[in-house]
């Protein structure tokens, strides 16, 4: 008779097999390993599995062209496969993390809205946010990888919206950043006036007295109510939010669509600013995470040294900290930052 496990007599002495060492070192499993407590979790930088894996393309040798491109296709296939597995393992990690937050909060997050932020590190918050963005794209992208295989990199630039963040290869990321920065420069050249104090006046609500109230989407939405359509469009361009299809047809998106996207992004940025300020600030960020943090805030990153980016982000966080996340500073920076004397002086000093 075949047994399926340890006998009843020996069950109390049974020890589950340990996690294989090779699983601990797999980059696509880094978030799951950290959340399980098998490896320490950095308080500021999210796990490696939330970013694209390394792409090792073969060098052109003496082999024929067909063999070379076959090897290139295999490299991209391996890259996409690791990226897809990373999304799935990150999803498992977020489920464990949410269970822990729910247990620690004991219902507080339902009472206070954003109180759960005190229960997570900045790295854990980023894991939750990035996987929420990636997991919905996984089914369609997985089908595309299975159908197109090594031909997929040729089509990805035309459909960036379907690609999870863990599957963006370096040239694709650079192209997306170039387009975002060009869109931002065009919008700033329009000279859209920043909102007046009346347009973003303080809200007569208890949330104003709260610390960092812009972490709530409702508060952010109320701050956007008084803005004109051209001001909303500029904010969306500065943060690279709306689909570029609207730029191709030369029409601005409807204001309700802009407000919805902006309220979500402004609340997200304020949460991240609060956690980043609390957990160590810009000096604690790795080079890769520094670039991501800057571009999410509408700060140009291409061609800039790391020192400049770190100073830019430190300046941004200081203004947010002074404003206590009420939204006034973030509007000022997104409308006037390219013309502000302090901003110019900061970059001149860093580049000299």
UniProtKB/TrEMBL annotation:
Transmembrane segments: none
Gene Ontology cellular component list: mitochondrial inner membrane
InterPro entries (UniProt xref): LETM1-like_RBD, LETM1/MDM38-like
Membrane topology: Single-pass membrane protein
Biased composition (Polar residues): 1-10
Domain Letm1 RBD: 146-352
PROSITE patterns: LETM1_RBD
This protein's UniProt keywords: Membrane, Mitochondrion, Mitochondrion inner membrane, Transmembrane, Transmembrane helix
GO BP: intracellular monoatomic cation homeostasis
Protein name as annotated: Letm1 RBD domain-containing protein
């Amino acid at each position: 008779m075949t047994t399926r496990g340890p006998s009843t007599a020996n069950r109390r002495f049974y020890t589950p097999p340990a996690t294989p060492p090779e699983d601990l070192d797999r980059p696509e499993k880094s978030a799951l390993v950290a959340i399980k407590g098998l490896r320490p979790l950095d308080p500021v930088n999210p796990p490696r599995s939330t970013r694209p894996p390394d792409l090792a393309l073969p060098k052109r040798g003496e082999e024929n062209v067909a063999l070379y491109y076959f090897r290139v296709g295999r490299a991209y296939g391996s890259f996409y496969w690791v990226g897809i597995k990373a999304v799935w393992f990150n999803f498992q990690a977020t489920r464990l993390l949410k269970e822990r937050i729910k247990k620690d909060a004991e219902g507080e997050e339902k009472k206070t809205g954003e109180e759960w932020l005190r229960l997570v590190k900045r790295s854990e918050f980023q894991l939750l946010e990035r996987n929420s963005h990636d997991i919905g794209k996984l089914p369609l992208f997985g089908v595309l990888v299975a159908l197109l295989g090594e031909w997929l990199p040729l089509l990805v630039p035309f459909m960036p919206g379907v690609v999870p963040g863990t599957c963006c290869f370096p040239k694709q990321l650079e192209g997306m950043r170039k387009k975002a920065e060009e869109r931002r420069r065009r919008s700033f050249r329009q000279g859209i006036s920043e909102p007046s104090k009346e347009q973003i006046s303080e809200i007569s609500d208890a949330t104003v007295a709260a610390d960092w109230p812009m972490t709530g989407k409702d508060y952010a939405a109320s701050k956007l109510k008084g803005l004109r359509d051209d001001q909303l469009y500029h904010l969306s361009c500065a943060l690279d939010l709306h689909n570029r299809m609207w730029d191709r047809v030369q029409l601005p998106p409807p204001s309700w669509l802009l407000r919805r996207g902006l309220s979500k992004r402004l609340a997200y940025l304020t949460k991240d600013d609060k956690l980043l300020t609390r957990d160590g600030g810009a000096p604690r960020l790795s080079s890769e995470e520094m670039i991501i943090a800057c571009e999410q805030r509408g700060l140009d990153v291409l061609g800039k040294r790391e020192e400049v980016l770190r100073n830019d982000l430190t300046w941004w966080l200081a203004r947010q900290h002074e404003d206590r996340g009420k939204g006034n500073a973030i509007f000022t920076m997104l409308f006037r930052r390219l013309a502000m004397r302090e901003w110019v002086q900061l970059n001149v000093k860093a580049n000299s």
